[in-house]
Amino acid sequence: MDLASKLEKLSLELVQKNDYLYKVSVKIDQLESLLLSFINEFNYITLDSINCRDDLEDGLFTITYCLQTEARDHIVMVQTSIERETASLPTMHTIWPQAEIMEREMHEMFGVDFPGHPTLIDFALEYWDNIPPLRRDFDTLEYVNSMNPFRGQRTDALDTKEEMKKKREAKKAAKLKAEQEAAAKAAQEEQNNPKQEVSGDE
Amino acid sequence: MNDLKNTIKIFHGPQHPGITGNMSVELDLLGETIKRARVHVGYLHRGFEKLVERRTVVQAFTIVCRICVPEPDPNEENFARAVENLAGLEISEKAKYIRTMVLEMQRLANLFLWMGGQAGSIGLGLIPQWSVCDRDYMLDLFEELTGGRVYHMYAFPGGVRRDLPDGFLDKLSDLLDYYEKRIIVYNNTFFDNVIFKKRAIGVGIVNRDEVLKNAYVGQTMRACGIKKDVRKDMPYLMYDKLDFDIPIQQDGDVYARALVRRDEMIQSIRILRQIIEQMPEEGDILQKIQKHRKFKLPADDTYVQTESARGAMSYYMAGDGSEKIRRMQVRGPSLVHAYTLLEKLLVDSELADVAMTMNSLGICPPEIER
Predict the structure, then answer these.
(1) Is B125 a domain residue?
(2) Distance between CA atoms of B290 and B87, rounded to whole angstroms?
């Protein structure tokens, strides 16, 4: 029996996305049995990756298992959706050893639970107690600002704006004073040496 | 666990020349023999997959090349092809040829760098000096073509960003002539080196039966006699028009992986020679796309795969109808090779073989953390 007709019997549709890529969407309760039949009946022995997408607006995580046969000439994406708030998936590490690290990463980055998984410990983060960082409601900017506040200044530090204002005022006052002194000096000189009025042609 | 009773624990990395980046291998040693190995990452988490969510497609394009430092171009190719798949963009034959050429140039540059690391990991100090220098000649060409030596930002959704400079293909041809001569020298000094053979033969043997099931890729797979390569199995760009072989070996050890890489260098040169001959003179290099604030991806998803110099590298990408990417997930060879394979492969091997084994698996820690 070929894959498309088998899936049709299960009321599932195999969609061809391009020459080498196919996709089938399943409900979560069908997922494990379908993955097993992909391995046992259709020889999709390789799990290339498990991908998780946060569809925050729908309150769902979309999970995609990418499978390949021994021939490695095409990829089938088996896709399912799970509730965001109670995100839990069956662990596949007993079938595919590489699923262990993929699921561990997904647990850390999205907060998806895998009951029965042996090593759901820290992956790239240490002692993380915030929202899992790849969830879309985790705001990177807000987190960075809260964790790394601007460094406080020294107690004897000067306010640059205030200092620049003072400097400008001092410069202005010095200029005014210089003008006044020059004017006073000119007036003094004029008083000491009054100008001779030059008479015109007489 | 009883085996761990009299062991001592050391951390191999992150500050260790034998580690191919910022990661650490926690080793439990009984004498010189490794009883348990645990991989730790998290020293370089830059969060590319998260950063992409906040940016438009065009802005995200500048980030992806940084995911793997020695090998940025397969990332660019995957990103560009995923966007093209989602947006329904067709690229010209000339752009396809140029992208294929860039990927093969990158493969050669990466394999020269690998050779330096692999030889350095067993104390052959001359080879890294030669091979890093030889890689630099390729970086000179990259600089002329793209403006950047290491990060290129060249393969853009819809084609490539610049046309070939005048006389570029002649320069590439001259460099290939030089590389052909150099590979003979490397063969005599490194691949046939008795020290390398004594150290590498029979070390780090990968079980052939596990390869396909556990998704080991690249030279790790081909050194076990499995003749699989994305360029042949799911051809992209112009690979179906080019004639090349997939080198394989049977032993599955460090030495077999090295020989596969050597033969792949020869095949890359062969591919590049064909590209130089077949490169179309005329043709658009870049399809015009909407400005970056208006360029939107449909609500759909795709999965693309490229054969990098270290094995198959895949991207999952999903759009949501907006100008931003809903999700981009990177799956390089390193994640599975470092955790599923390396942790197991190191058990009962010698401390001195850690760097050599890790290097032969093509593990790139920045790609694990993304």
Answers:
(1) yes
(2) 11
3-state SS track over A74-118: CEEEEEEEEECCCCECCCCCCCCCCHHHHHHHHHHHHCCECCCCC
Please check whether residue A91 lies inside any domain of the structure. Answer: yes
Q: At what angle do helices B168-186 and B254-278 cross, to 10 degrees?
A: 160
What is the number of domains present in chain A?
Answer: 1
The pLDDT of residue B110 is: 94
- Which residues does B contribute to its contact with A (CB < 8 Å)? 41-42, 45, 47, 49-51, 53-54, 85, 210, 212-215, 228, 230, 233-234, 301-303, 305, 312, 314, 316, 318, 326-327, 329, 331, 335-336, 339-340, 368-369
List of E strands, B103-240? 155-156, 159-160
Does residue A177 lie in a domain region?
A: no
Residue-wise DSSP of B137-163: HHHHHHHHHHS-SS----EETTEESSP
ipTM (interface pTM): 0.92
Rounded distance between C-alpha atoms, residue B131 and residue A20, angstroms: 37
Nearest to A98 among B49, B316, B336 (CB): B336
Query: For A97, which of B47, B214, B329 is closest by C-beta distance?
Result: B214
**In Å, how far from its chain's centre is CA A49?**
21
Of B50, B215, B305, the CB nearest to A134: B50
Q: Is residue B152 part of a domain?
A: yes
Separation of alpha carbons A8 and A6, rounded Å: 5
Min CA distance, B206 vs chain A (Å)? 15
Query: What is the helix (H) or strand (E) element at residue B353, kind and residue range?
Result: none
In-domain check, residue B283: yes
B12 domain-assigned? no
Q: Chains A and B: how many Cβ contacts under 8 Å?
A: 102
Containing structural domain, residue B184: 90-292
What residues does A152 pair with on adjacent strands? none
Q: What's the pLDDT tens digit per position in B22-45?
A: 889 999 999 899 999 999 988 887
Q: What is the pLDDT of residues B302-358, one digit of tens each?
A: 999 999 999 999 999 999 998 999 999 999 899 999 999 999 999 999 999 999 999
Question: What token pair was written down for B48?
Answer: 């590319």
All residues of chain A having their beta carbon less than 8 Å from the beta carbon of residue B45 are 124-125
Q: Do A74 and B327 touch (CB under 8 A)?
A: no
Residue closest to B54 by CA, chosen among A115, A142, A86: A142
CATH of residue B215: 1.10.645.10
Residue B17 pLDDT exceeds 60: yes
Q: Tell how strand A21-25 and strand A75-83 pair up.
A: parallel
- Structurally, chain B folds into a number of domains equal to 1
Residue-number span of the structural domain to which A33 is assigned? 3-147
**CATH code for the domain of A32:** 3.30.460.80
Rounded CA-CA distance B94/B164 in Å is 10
Q: Is residue A162 part of a domain?
A: no
Angle at which helices B168-186 and B126-146 cross, to 10°: 170
What pTM value is reported for the model? 0.88
